[in-house]
Structure formats: structure tokens, C-alpha cells
Design a protein that fits this description.
Two copies of one chain form a homodimer. Chain A is of the alpha+beta class and about 220 residues long. Chain A has helices spanning about 5-15, 25-30, 35-50, 65-85, 95-100, 110-115, 165-170, 205-210, and strands at about 50-55, 60, 145, 155-160, 180-185, 195, 200-205, 210-215. The longest helix of chain A has 23 residues, at about 65-85. Chain A is globular and about 55 Å long. The mean pLDDT of chain A is about 95. At the A-B interface, helix 5 and helix 6 of A face helix 5 and helix 6 of B. Chain B binds a DNA duplex (30 and 30 nucleotides) through helix 3.
Chain lengths: ~220, ~220
Amino acid sequence: MNTFTEENYLKAIYHLSSKTESVGTNEIAAALNTKAASVTDMLKKLAEKKLINYARYQGVTLTTAGEKVALSIIRKHRLWEYFLVEKLNFKWDEVHDVAEELEHISSKELVDRLDDFMGNPKYDPHGDPIPDKQGKFKAHELKPVSSLEVNKEGIISGVRDHSAAFLQYLEKMSLTIGKKIKIADINTYDHSVIIQAGDKRVHVSREVANNLLIAL
Amino acid sequence: MNTFTEENYLKAIYHLSSKTESVGTNEIAAALNTKAASVTDMLKKLAEKKLINYARYQGVTLTTAGEKVALSIIRKHRLWEYFLVEKLNFKWDEVHDVAEELEHISSKELVDRLDDFMGNPKYDPHGDPIPDKQGKFKAHELKPVSSLEVNKEGIISGVRDHSAAFLQYLEKMSLTIGKKIKIADINTYDHSVIIQAGDKRVHVSREVANNLLIAL
DNA sequence: GTCTATTTTTAGACTAATCTAAATTTTTTA
DNA sequence: TAAAAAATTTAGATTAGTCTAAAAATAGAC
């Protein structure tokens, strides 16, 4: 098995990999709130274990084995988040830190039973897809509100910013996962957007529009 | 907060304390599968943190603060065991190791919500009492089957041996928590006991009778 | 295409938890 | 109550993960 710390590195590399091809040492250090020197040490260890492809100064990618581990951590994280919100009535902005701990519980039996207990959910409370036992998942095609034209309709299905502050703001504005919305107007000067959500109209900044994801 | 390891030491000391007054270094080492020298080091650290009363060569007792920590770990352990059995359909002999990991999840909010979600159970799947938020609990008065006379009746309410092997044996014999039983006969030669459980008669050894606890 | 800035790695040190082996204290026993 | 046995502690090392500071490699600018 892998240590808690190794798992966090693999998860971080996985998340950073979706953006660029090969991931740099500094990038990982920033993501994990640690120093580049510490990252280099850990990369050597992970490479030794064949969990990453690593060559000095060249950045890293996950091996198939490493990706498998990362996906199993992400699966656990998202299933626990779902549990916390759906069964224990946590708010969607309160679950991240607890799930960061729970994701390292090793029992495979536990996570699979938890999955069944909740009816095998496909998406977590923030709209992120939950990998299945095999690590497979389908991310739905999402677009930021900021990329839509006036009169487009769609369903709020994800967020780009997972911070508690952003989630609380959305909650307050009733812009939550599953809500059907329509782009009522776009301010051409500051790119702010007026969203029609049910019978309410909400005016959000360009930044918010950028971080709110819609399924068309 | 305390480390994972510190918590395990406090829990072990708590469990060992119920037997004798002051707990010895070797006793703790045996319970935690470690060496006496390691225990001494940790005892110094815990004493520094005022979680135990410790004087060289004199053994240890928990301080009020230490006992509070130990009880919170035990509360979490037993609540998670209850969850695993009642909600995720684990068998009572399968939950210990998973609960050993889950008990170290730190969120107080999580454990209190879990407690409410399950309806604030008072006993775990092995009959052990679950401390409440304040660490209070009521252990019911239990006697081993081996201490009862012929014709005594009672309800199976706990076990002294928590090993998977013993629990599986009881399961097979249908001697599970909550079952009403009667002492049908006692073999005076080997002190084995014949137990009437519903319409079945089960013949158990002295050792089993010693580890099976009854509420009268 | 060299030089500077940035990124990354190495070197050496630190902390937490552990170990073995040796020394010390307590307990037992005779 | 003194010697032997048992329990406990100290000393010194080890491993995982981290750090700072310095060295090395790569990338970018001109």
C-alpha cells in the first residue's frame, strides 16, 4: 500500500495533469503547500515504485498504475462527499476537508459498499463525476456561463472553483446544481451576466460566470 | 491535535487501565505490537502534553484530558462499527480493522452527525457501550455464561474476546447479541455448558462460556 | 548563441516514531 | 536483605517526510 502522503502527491499530479501534459516540480509544490525540494524527493520515491514517469528536470506524468491509484482516491473523496451531503446533511461548502481525510481510508470493501448504499451516484455534490470501481467515469460536456450567448438555456452542473466562499455565494444566489437557468442578458462593458433562474433574476460578475458550469 | 499514534497510545492505556490501576510499559508495548523502548519515548511525550501521569519506572495513568481524548476515539470507533454493520451490512467480525482507521478522522461535526443519522445508538455491534458527546456511557451489568448456574436465563449482551475467530464461532452457533438464552446444563468435569437458545441447544466449552457475556 | 532568470536538484539537517543493545531501577525470592 | 530476575529507561541508529541553502540544468531574451 501507499502512504497518505504518496496518495496526496498522486492525486495532485492527476489533477494538474488534466491541464498541461507534463507536470512541473514547482506546480506540485504549490498545490501541496510544500517546497520544491520536498517534491523532488517524493518524485524519486514514486518513480521507484513505478507510479510516475520521471526524468530529472523533465517533469512527471502518471503511469497507468499511478493513475489507477489517483482515481481510486478521487473515487473515495467524491463518494464520501456525496455521503456527507446526502446522508449527513452537510452543506456542499463544508465537505471538502472531511473528505480529504476520509479518502485515505484503505478498505476497498468499505468504499464499494458505501457506493451501493447510496445507489451508485454518478456525480458528487459539486457536479464532479465519481469514478466507478474500475476507475471509469463520464464527465458531461460543460460550458462556463461566460461562454454562452443571450437566451441560451441549460442546467447548472458543475463549478470550476471549489472554494467554500464561492460555493456559499452560489448557495445564497440559489445557483445550485441541477437548477435550470437561462442567460437573460450580458453586459458588454464588464461581461457580467444576468441569469434567469426560475422566477428570479440574478446578476453575477464575469468571474462568477467563468466558474459556473452549465450542461446545455 | 494529537497524532494518529498518540491517539492509539491513549486508547490502549485506557483499555488497559480498566483492569489494573497503573499501566506498565511492557503491557502497553504488547497491546500495540511495539517495543518497550518505543513506549517509554511516547510516554514522555504524552506526559509533556499532560495527557498522562507518568513517573519513571512507576507506570502511567490517564489524566482527565487524556481520558477525554481516549473516550472520543472509542466513541468514534464504536459509532463507525455500528454504521458498518447497520448501514453497510458488514458482519460483526469484519468491522474492527476498518473502524481502527475511521476512528482517527478528526471532524467532531462528522461523528456527531453520524451519531444522529443512526439514531444515537447506545451499544455497538459487539455490545460495547458507545460514549456520548460528553464521553458519558452506561455499561450494563454483565456476567460471563461461565458464572451462571443451571436454569438461569438472560440475554446475550456482550463478548470478552473480540477476535474474528470467536465472533464467527458465535455467529455459526447462533449465539448473537440480543438472543435470549437459558443455561440448560453444566458439565462438572470440564465446565462446558449446554445453552438453550430458542429451540436449539448449543454445547460450548468453558473458554467460550467465559467470553460470552449475559445480562440477567 | 551567449547570458541571465527560472526551475529543479543536491547536500545536509531536523522531527516523529521506531528499533536494538546496554544500562539502570524495581521486584522477587530465597 | 542481598542476589537474581524482570521491568524500564537510556543511548545511539534508522526511516519517512520535511526544510534551507547552495549548486546545476534548462529556458528565454537579446
